Amino acid sequence: MIPPHLIAPAVRAALAEDLGHGGDPTSQAVVPAGTRVTATVAARAPGRLCGVPLAAETFRATDPAAAITVHRADGEAVAAGDACLTVAGDARALLAAERTALNFLGHLSGIATATAELVALAAPHGTRIAETRKTTPGLRGLEKAAVRAGGGHNHRFGLDDAVMIKDNHRALADPADGLAALVDRARERVGHTVTVTVEVESLAELDAVLTARPDVVLLDNMDPPTLAEAVRRTRGRAVTEASGGITLDTAAAIAASGVDVISVGWLTHSAPALDVGLDVTS
Asked: Which of 2, 5, 23, 117 is deepest in the core (most CB within 10 A)?
């Protein structure tokens, strides 16, 4: 799930942040040098995993000779108590890596778990779940991989991926330009492979912009009946995407409107971490 080239740089940056210039003085003072240990990283609550390769790489970074056995892969469902990986190596080194490894695994698994819950609600209606660009700086690629691990789909990775005309763009554009004119202007600017999305807040705005044939219409903060009518008017003319304030309680009704995609910002910025822990076994 996680592109391999993202793993080592993320681990190096996270360990540098945690270990600073002095390493782990607690373990250096308390744990005898040369102590060997075997420990297991396990889920303490049910969920969907993501970040196992990052956790393994974190332990490997502090102890290159560590023996690591992976029990569960990214994308797998786990129950409370399930072992994710076992690591055997130098005790001081493993303790130095512990918190960073668990932070990666808990945070990304939390995103994957929340995504899987939304996917289950939307799947009966054929609706895809996607995240947004509301990601942690420096962790976007990892967090978007976690959405994939949960069965979701990725929105644009950056501003340069696509055109998305939203409320602030409209507020700062020439007042004489309507939505259709803004779509036309965007198409003149970008290449033929770049999609154009327009955010609309009402059925009247939807009707106005459909004449310009955008690739995607972003239906912002619409209730399910309005979404259903928007889908009916748009069918076959553009991809429909619902966004704004969507929760686990409302996702099923929104998906039932027939929208193609539901995009959810809180998946990456507010999903609760999955509870994982490291226990010394020998």
From this structure: 2
Share of the chain above pLDDT 90, in %: 97
Q: Which of 18, 44, 82, 99 is catalytic?
A: 99
Task: Tell the CATH topology of 122-269.
Answer: TIM Barrel (3.20.20)
- H-helix or E-strand containing 127? none
Q: Which of 24, 143, 199, 241 is catalytic?
A: 199
Superfamily the domain 4-118+272-280 falls into: Quinolinate phosphoribosyl transferase, N-terminal domain (3.90.1170.20)
List the chain domain ranges: 4-118+272-280, 122-269
144 is catalytic: no
Report whether 242 contacts 254 (CB < 8 A): yes
Residue 235, SS3 per DSSP: coil
Phi and psi torsions of 142, nearest 5°: -70, -45
Q: State yes or no: is 237 an active-site residue.
A: no
Q: Per-residue pLDDT tens for 69-120?
A: 999 999 999 999 999 999 999 999 999 999 999 999 999 999 999 999 999 9
134 classed as catalytic: yes
**Which residue in the list 76, 207, 220, 229 is annotated as catalytic?**
220
